[in-house]
Amino acid sequence: MDKKIKRHVVLFIFIVSLTLSIGQEQEINRPFKQAGSIEALIDTDINYNELILIQLDLTTDSLLTIVQNAIPQLDLNIGLGSYHRIFPIDIFHNLQGILSTNNYSILKRDYQLPIQTRQYWSSTLQGNQTMGTYTEDDAISYTCDCVDGASDCVKLGWYSWYNPFDYYGEAWWGFTPPEYSYIDEIRVTVRGAQCDLLPLSSETYMGMKDDNGNWAQNYQLSIDYTDNTFIVPDIFSLDMLIPTIGSEDNYVVDQVTLEFFYICVYPDNPTNITSSDEEHCDYIDINWLAPDNANNVSGYRIYRDGEFVTEVSNSTFNFMDYGASLNIAHEYCVSSVNECGESNISCDIGSRKGVNHVNNVNASDGDFSDYVYITWTPSNNADLYKIYRDGIWLGITDANLSPEYLDYFIDYEFEHEYCIESINDCGTSDWMCDIGYGASGLGDINNDTSIDVLDVVLLVNIILGYSEPIDNQFWTSDINNDDQINVQDVILLVSIILD
Questions:
Q1: Is the separation of the CB atoms in 431 and 358 below 8 Å?
Q2: pLDDT tens column, 427-486
Q3: Distance, CA of 215 to CA of 307 (rounded, Å)
Q4: How far is CA 221 from CA 73, 80, 147, 277, 392, in A?
Q5: Which H/E stretch holds residue 473?
């Protein structure tokens, strides 16, 4: 008798399972249903005393009906599952009166809504863009099945009309958020649907994978094709945020979206930047101090005339720029950097030390009888001056002495080019030059290298107008240097001959 009962029970289970499985072969088409908002209870124009983030776990129709009737503005319109809602404190007190703590949990007291001053990042992955999957029963397939209008999906779980048992599949998606200083909030939205007629309530869950590869089934997903949005803790795995979904009920994931609300604190700019001014021959030395709050500084960037030059570590406060040009004042700017970005810049002007040339070179023009007198305006950074005559080094003088030189080795009546070169430890300057000559040829009017009666005769002829002075004859005839040729010059010339 016992054996007959067992046979009937087994047969009954098989018939029921077969009936349900055949029923499941009916075509399922789930249109998209717009889910209610996490902020459904919030009026942005009201300044609330306190807000509380609540997770509702509504696993039976009766629980869902009780809450919907008591607080209809919660907008719980996607059936059984987990809901996140932000409650003002007074409405939360109403919730406490209708639900036990087994059916809700407080995720955060004194909840603050994301505000515009927070930075925001969002990324969406298609269902088939999984980071990884797991199944022991071939319960992963890349199809959108019953999801109306979707593409690039993955389906978790497996069934066959002749097999009443469900098989488990799991998938996860990896998101790498931007650099941050503080995390304010993370939201994960799973868009998908259960493509299985049974069970009538979902057995599909989502959670966040940790560094050990584990995850908790914290959030029950709706069977409807909808957006399941949850505010999740900042649980990282391998420096990534990895939402994970597991199901044995043919749950199709259309896409997964992660929203990241964060604050990234930019560093303060460095202070006391100085750039050397004509101190070094082949480089400019740039120095700076760390900002007062340097805890979040990872390095410093150096710019020359607005162009990036290099980046150094946060323990370096000096840079020698060998790429600086000579005779150009460069603007050097330094900024602090960290994972969030770059600070304002601090700047200073600097220049390489060169060799500045002299100015106002003047070589005398016949002012002295047996030498040429050369003077110049000194350079501001010379140690020595070299004097050249007609391109040949003539002499050298210390920059601390008076800027002058006397050339006694002159060719009379012959013009010479005198050039001055500045010298210091950086090298030599450009030459600055002037023409000069000596006056020791006065009286040699016929230019025969001797002063005699022939010169007197020529001078008298010039005075009487019988001869026009040519070339240098005017200045050689003007013995008294009064810019006139007259009898006084004749008397002086005769005196020279007689002496």
A1: no
A2: 999 999 999 987 656 777 887 767 888 888 888 888 888 888 876 677 778 878 788 889
A3: 48
A4: 21, 8, 15, 69, 96
A5: helix 473-477
- When pLDDT is averaged across residues 95-117 and rounded to a whole number, the result is 90
Contact 79, 64 (CB under 8 A): yes
Residue 9: pLDDT band by 50, 70, 90 thresholds? very low
Quick one: what percent of the chain has pLDDT higher than 70? 90
Instruction: Tell whether the model's pLDDT for residue 18 goes beyond 50.
Output: no
Q: Across 30-128, where does the E strand assignment appear?
A: 32-33, 51-58, 81-88, 104-108, 119-126
- Spatial distance between the Cα atoms of 11 and 4, rounded to a whole number of angstroms: 10
pTM of the model as a whole: 0.66
Beta carbons of 245 and 279 less than 8 angstroms apart: no
3-state secondary structure 77-93: CCCCEEEEEEEEHHHHH
- Judge whether residue 311 has pLDDT over 60: yes
Tens-place pLDDT, residues 155-212: 998 755 445 567 899 999 999 999 998 999 999 999 999 998 766 778 899 999 999 9
Report the distance separating Cα 361 and Cα 277, nearest Å: 27
**First-to-final CA distance of the chain:** 170
Q: Tell me how far apart the alpha carbons of residues 21 and 15 are, in angstroms, rounded to a whole number.
A: 10
The contacts found for 128-131 with CB under 8 angstroms, 24 or more apart, are 128/152, 128/153, 128/154, 129/173, 130/154, 130/171, 130/172, 130/173, 131/172, 131/173, 131/174, 131/242
**Where do the domains of the chain lie, and which CATH numbers do they carry?**
32-108 (no CATH), 119-263 (2.60.120.260), 271-350 (2.60.40.10), 359-436 (2.60.40.10), 453-498 (no CATH)
Q: Are 84 and 229 in contact (CB under 8 A)?
A: yes
What contacts 389, CB < 8 A, 6 or more positions away?
407, 416, 417, 418, 419
